[in-house]
Design goal:
This protein is 34% helix and 21% strand. By secondary structure, it is an alpha+beta fold. The chain has two domains: 41 residues, Orthogonal Bundle (Arc Repressor Mutant, subunit A); 84 residues, 2-Layer Sandwich (Alpha-Beta Plaits), CATH 3.30.70.920. It has a four-stranded antiparallel sheet with strand order 2-3-1-4, with helices on one face. GO terms for molecular function: sequence-specific DNA binding.
């Protein structure tokens, strides 16, 4: 939990907070990294400081039984603007979260999706523009749900 709150905390500080040795902390973090439980470390940056003023959620309705769907989602995930891709329930099976500098860049992104994937892999999409972020702290897991 402490590492999720502050990804920059030192092993020494973490060991003091948890009452464990530095070696124990390091071994545990190394193990979590090897297992893939810790996928990496990143900073939560206000998009306005990056000159990326427009954040959008783009929902995708995939064509039924498309054997290339996973590959297409991996390709889309490599696009520069894409922050995350999420499979979900409902009419639209996939949600993309992406940042854009302006509306023109969003339109270019949608044109690219249309040219590459529409009617081949995608039936349609729906775009929602985020007006304001109230809270965005990454993944938060309650103490009782931790795996050992």
């Amino acid at each position: 939990m402490e590492l999720r709150k502050n990804g920059r905390i030192t092993f020494t500080d973490l060991s003091k907070k948890l009452g464990l040795s530095v070696a124990s902390i390091k071994n545990r973090v190394d193990k979590l990294e090897r297992l893939g439980a810790i996928k990496g470390y990143s900073a939560l940056v206000e998009p306005a400081f990056l000159e990326e003023y427009l954040q959008a959620l783009i929902e995708l309705e995939l064509l039924a039984d498309d054997p290339r769907a996973e590959m297409v989602l991996q390709e889309i995930g490599k696009l520069e603007n894409v922050l995350g891709i999420y499979k979900k329930t409902g009419e639209f099976q996939v949600m993309i979260r992406a940042n854009f500098r302006n509306m023109d860049e969003l339109k270019s992104f949608l044109r690219l999706l249309s040219q590459r994937y529409l009617r081949k892999n995608l039936r349609r999409w729906r775009v929602t523009i985020i007006l304001d972020v109230i809270k965005d702290n990454g993944v938060q897991i309650s103490k009782g749900s931790q795996r050992r």
